[in-house]
Structures are given as structure tokens and as C-alpha cells.
Amino acid sequence: MALSSQIARFFRHFAAGPPPNSGPERVARTLTGTSLIHSHTKVRHRSSSVPDNPVDSATDPAPVMKQHHKARCSVYPRSQVSRYPVPDEKVSWSVPYPEYAPVDFTSDSVLKMPPWADVDFRVAQTNGDSSKNIEQPQWNQLDGKVNRRSHMGNYEVVDNVPRNPVGRTGVCGRGCLGRWGPNHAADPIVTRWKRNEKGEMVVDENHKLVAQFIAVQRRDNGQWALPGGMVDAGEVVTMTLRREFGEEALNSLEANEQEKKQIEASINDLFAHGQEVYRGYVDDPRNTDNAWMETVAMNFHDSDGKGVGRFNLHAGDDAVGVQWMDLSHRLELYASHIDFLQTTAEKLGASW
Ligand code: BGC
């Protein structure tokens, strides 16, 4: 099997299988569609490489996003729960909304208490269940191995539960998020310059170079996204980025030892020189009043296209779910990923 298709296989394996009714045609439609996801917040720009554990070493809190939209989507993902309507002007907790009655929803998969989820200490406390020795989480701190700190500084804790720093969402509880308060993710933005068949770099109508990034299709909703993932308890963000991008998947790759080494070397090389593009709140459809997504997004640019950039990922007959996509304002992507890519394009001086 050619190396490029092996790479495609391992991305498909780790990234998420394609959902029904998704295929290359759908991708094409997405890419040529004209509706934009509006950017409501300016993403941060850091000029130096990120330290090994950005969560621990961050000194200045990230700015809080002013508004969220996807976090108020009418039906909560993977459920039939309708959010209590929150108009734009009532998002902020500082604006009174006396009739506000958010739906209390925590999914069964979270209530089963898998290792990535907190105990529902509210229920345990109400039941007077002392046998489980339930302790109140240490908000705004590193709580054992669980990082309950926000990139945006201290969040409020009201009635014993953290309060979404951006505002109301129409749902309280944790929805399908495991942690009360911040749920930390990391997003690698792997880029290269687009080249034509002759290997020449492609420019747009304004003579700006066109950059491409690796996109994957999410299993839960079919949307295209960065190949990010959750930071495990006790894990540093750089590890998550690397792991999510391929280390685990590499184990399942049907490549011979030499090929594996080649791929691994390219990834190691690239991941040694990342630039932070964003850290903070993500406007994610899973957010609730008491649990929300935060991320650190980092750009890894293969400037000469000789490392990871030489792998030609392409959608196969069965909709591979991983591909190089052109950076463009026309993209429709999961959560706030378009904002991270806009900053990446600015940073690279690429076409947008
Ligand atoms: C995804 C990340 C995303 C984060 C917030 C995680 O589940 O893997 O790519 O940035 O959620 O939306």
C-alpha cells in the first residue's frame, strides 16, 4: 500500500469514521458554500512557541469571548433536549432574566461516571450518600490530576457549581461534557503551502500563497474539524496535540518499521516547532451553563512541504474523513475552529 494511503488510513482510524450521508460531494458543497461562520471574538496571537505545559505556565489570562452562538443551538447535541431560549441580549449573567429556566441535563453516558467524567456530587450530596466519600471539587485549581483552571482566569461558582464565563446557554448540568467547569482540549493545526501538479506553490487572485491544513470529519456530527481532542487528566497539552495527531494511530498503522519511523520522524520534526494560535473558551454546541469547552490551538507549519506536507491525503470511495483543505473564509467547520484558522492564515500571510 502506498505511504499516502496508509497515512490516510491511520488518520481515519483515529479521527473518527465518517457519518452516514457524508462523502466527497458533501465536502465539495461545504467548501464552495457561501455562508460564513461569523467570528465574534478575536483570537489571540502569541509570537513564541508555547511552553511544555501552557495550562500551568500561563500568567496572563486569555480574554473572555464576548458572545456565544453554537452554545445556544436549539437542540442539545446527541439528545432531544431543547435549550431554554436565550436571546443575544440575555446571554450575559449581568442582565436580569427572571423567567430564565434552563433545562437540567446531564447525559446518561456521563452519569455512568466513566474515568473522564466527574462524580455528580450534587446528587450524591442530596442523597446524603457519604459511603462514596464524595468530595467537593477544587474549583479554579489543579484538583489532583484534574485541571479545573480556566485559561481565562477564575470563573464564578454559584450554588456550588461553576458558571459559564460567557453567559447563559439554556441548559444547566453538564450535558455530555464530563467535567464541571472547563473541559480542556487541544487542537493541532498542521499546515503546508498548496502546490500544483508541477510542485509550484499556488497563489490566489491577490497573489497570496494558498495554505492548506489537515481536516478531519467528526464522527458525532459529520462536521469537518481540526484533529483535536481532550487533554487527559495529568497530561500536558503538547502531549495531547502529538497524541491526537497520530502517535496512538501510528500503532495501528499497517506500515513496516521503516515507514513508521519515517512518518514518526516527520511528525516529531514538525511538532517541535509549534506556534500558539489560540487559547480559551470555545463556542461549542455541547457547552452548558456549568460545563464548557476550552482549547489551546497550535500551528505546525511544514514550510517546505518535505515533511508531513508531502503526504497526499485524499478522500477515497468510502469518504475517508481526512484531507488537506485550503484555508479560506468560506469553510464551515466545527465549533470555533474557523477563528483559529483565520489567525493562522494571518500569521502565515496566507490567502484567506
Ligand atoms: C475537539 C476539539 C475542539 C474542542 C472544543 C474537542 O472535542 O476534539 O477539536 O476544539 O472539542 O470544541
Secondary structure blueprint with pairings:
Layout: H1 3-15, H2 24-32, H3 54-57, E1 103-106, H4 108-111, H5 121-126, E2 142-143, E3 146-147, E4 157-158, E5 161-162, E6 171-175, E7 181-193, E8 211-217, E9 224-225, E10 229-230, H6 237-252, H7 257-271, E11 275-281, E12 291-302, E13 322-326, H8 337-348
Parallel strand pairs: 1-6, 7-12
Antiparallel strand pairs: 2-3, 4-5, 7-8, 7-10, 8-9, 8-13, 11-12
The structure holds beta-D-glucopyranose (BGC).
Beta-D-glucopyranose (BGC) is lined by residues 185, 187, 225-226, 228-230, 282, 284, 293, 295, 335.
CATH topology: Nucleoside Triphosphate Pyrophosphohydrolase
Q: Helical element count? A: 8
Question: Main beta sheet: strand number and arrangement?
Answer: 7 strands, mixed
Based on CA atoms alone, the radius of gyration comes out at 21 Å
Secondary-structure element pattern, one letter each: HHHEHHEEEEEEEEEHHEEEH
Tell me the strand percentage band. Answer: 15-25%
Short description:
This protein has 352 residues and is α+β, with helices and mostly antiparallel strands.
